[in-house]
């Protein structure tokens, strides 16, 4: 089993502690690959849209993005972590997600994503963990992932694990371990179910790509959909079940 972890900060604080608690149940049976942001994706997306028009390999940061993309494609479980900064995911996480615009359903989603599962771990001082998780969940769902587990932790009074009350530590630990146990019981030899909302998004994008490909067969996204067979009867969630 392969797990890819994207950490929205290099800081080894409460979020890191929660991540380690979640991964504990997988340590003995999974190959875990972690990427720390911004170290492993150090540059902002410049909005040049070269990845959309000319292909992801033409991105100025392709050396970083390609390595992470390959790890995501090989993963059975994707884990995304981020503390909440001003009610949102970290800037490093947002910069990372911007780089993967080409993987969104309206462009060139990877068929592998439709069978994957993901977990999002966020926490904050007070409020904001839920909106931070929403930032990440939005992108994952548009990559084609339907099965997404979410943990949002609210801290009160301090942001250092060792300074949290024993009661708060136990509360957070219990909730994370419960989520970990739930995902540890999954049979990862079988692809995740693709939900109705994801299928609806797919068919809307399919109609758009059919029109674009008809008007310009050389258009990169339309040609990609045609190669996948998605403009015909092929569907990515069926591929995962073969």
Automatic annotation (TrEMBL):
It holds the Pfam family FMN_red. InterPro entries: Flavoprotein-like_sf, FMN-dep_NADH:Q_OxRdtase_AzoR1, FMN_Rdtase-like_dom. Residues 1-147 form the NADPH-dependent FMN reductase-like domain. One of its GO terms (molecular function) is oxidoreductase activity. It comes from the Bacteria. This is Iron-sulfur flavoprotein.
């Amino acid at each position: 089993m392969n797990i890819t972890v994207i950490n929205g900060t290099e800081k080894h604080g409460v979020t890191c502690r929660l991540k380690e608690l979640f991964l504990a149940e997988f340590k003995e049976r999974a190959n875990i690959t972690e990427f720390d942001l911004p170290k492993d994706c150090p540059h902002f997306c410049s909005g040049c849209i070269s990845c959309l028009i000319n292909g992801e390999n033409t991105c100025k940061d392709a050396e970083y993005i390609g390595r992470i993309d390959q790890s995501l494609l090989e993963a059975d479980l994707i884990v995304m972590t981020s503390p909440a900064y001003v009610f949102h995911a970290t800037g490093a996480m947002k910069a990372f997600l911007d780089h993967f615009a080409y993987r969104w359903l309206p462009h060139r989603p990877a068929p592998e994503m439709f069978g994957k599962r993901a977990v999002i771990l966020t926490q904050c001082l007070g409020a904001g963990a839920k909106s931070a998780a929403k930032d990440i969940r939005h992108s994952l769902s548009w990559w084609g992932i339907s099965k997404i587990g979410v943990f949002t932790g609210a801290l009160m009074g301090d942001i250092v694990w060792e300074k949290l009350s024993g009661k708060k530590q136990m509360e957070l630990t219990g909730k994370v371990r419960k989520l970990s146990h739930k995902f540890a019981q999954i049979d990862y030899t079988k692809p995740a179910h693709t939900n109705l909302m994801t299928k609806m998004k797919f068919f809307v994008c399919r109609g758009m790509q059919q029109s674009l490909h008809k008007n310009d067969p050389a258009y990169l996204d339309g040609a990609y959909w045609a190669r996948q067979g998605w403009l015909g009867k092929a569907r990515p969630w069926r591929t995962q079940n073969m």
